[in-house]
Structures are given as C-alpha cells and as structure tokens.
Amino acid sequence: MARALMSDEEWSFYEAFILAIRGRGGRPANDHRRVLDGIFWIARTGAGWRDLPEEFGRWHSVYQQFRRWTLAGLWEMMLDVLNESGAVPDTVHMIDSTIIRAHHQAAGAKGGHKDKVLAAQKVALRRRST
User: Fold this and answer.
1) For residue 56, how many other CB atoms are within 10 A of its CB?
2) In the chain, how long is the greatest CA-to-CA distance?
3) Which of 38, 63, 74, 75 is 20 to 30 A from 10 in CA distance terms?
4) Is the Cα torsion angle 54, 56, 61, 62 positive or negative in sign?
5) Cβ atoms of 21 and 72 closer than 8 Å
6) CA-CA distances (angstroms) from residue 68 to 25, 50, 61, 62?
7) d(Cα 60, Cα 52) in Å, to the nearest integer?
8) At what angle do helices 32-45 and 8-20 cross, to 10 degrees?
C-alpha cells in the first residue's frame, strides 16, 4: 500500500469539487478517491504515468481522468478556493516550468561555447611554416 494517502478530512474537501464536475455520460466513475490519490502520488514522486502502482488502478485510466479534470478546470477551481479560504499560507507558491527562464545561452543566443571552439579550430589549422 502506498504511504501518505489522503485522510478522510482531505477527501471531504476534494469530493465536493469532483462531484461538482459531472461527466458527459458514459460509464459511472469507479472510485474518484483512488484516482485522486494516484494523481497526487504522481505529483509527489515525479514518476512517469506508467510507473503508477497498480493499487491506484490502470495508469492510463488515471491519466485520462486527470486530463478530463484538467480540461474541466478542476485544479484551478480548487486552487482558487484554497487561496480565498486562507487555509494555505501566503508563502506557499507553485513553480511551473513555463515561467522559469533559462540562461541566455540555453535559449540559442549568439556566442558562448561555439565561438571558443571555432577560435580553437582556427588556431589549430593555421599554417606553421612559411
């Protein structure tokens, strides 16, 4: 069994949001709590979806539900309510890779290592005799 699964109190918070977002029909959901635990396990460990333990269900099913909830705006809705409630300290921030800037050389700027290599090659290929 995976460690640090959500408590009943935590589940009661999330359950209200999940039930508010209804599907378009089809087969009824099996166990939203287990799926949410699986999503949180992926977020906590940084593992790939295919490495999700079997106790959370099939990895592809958990991923599909994650995508459905993402497209429905579930995560933004939860974060907005958490921010408005004041339950989370103001010092807690999420870092998304889309807001982190790389060094200018990593962005394809001119110069850097390439110029040094070309200069060294030019020196090495000079004629040595007259």
Assistant:
1) 21
2) 86
3) 63
4) negative
5) yes
6) 13, 18, 11, 10
7) 9
8) 110
Q: Do 13 and 40 touch, CB atoms closer than 8 A?
A: no
Rounded CA separation 93/95 (Å): 6
Which of 61, 63, 52, 53 minimizes the C-alpha distance to 27?
61
Here the tokens at position 57 are: 């269900």
Global confidence as pTM:
0.63
State residue 26's pLDDT score.
Answer: 59
The confidence score (pLDDT) of residue 104 equals: 58
**What does the DSSP assignment read for the chain?**
--SSPPPHHHHHHHHHHHHHS--SSSSPPS-HHHHHHHHHHHHHH---GGG--GGG--HHHHHHHHHHHHHHTHHHHHHHHHHHHT-S-TT-----GGGPPPPTTTTT-SSTHHHHHHHHHHHHTS----
Say how many CA atoms lie within 13 Å of 30 toward its Cβ.
9
Name residue 71's amino acid: L
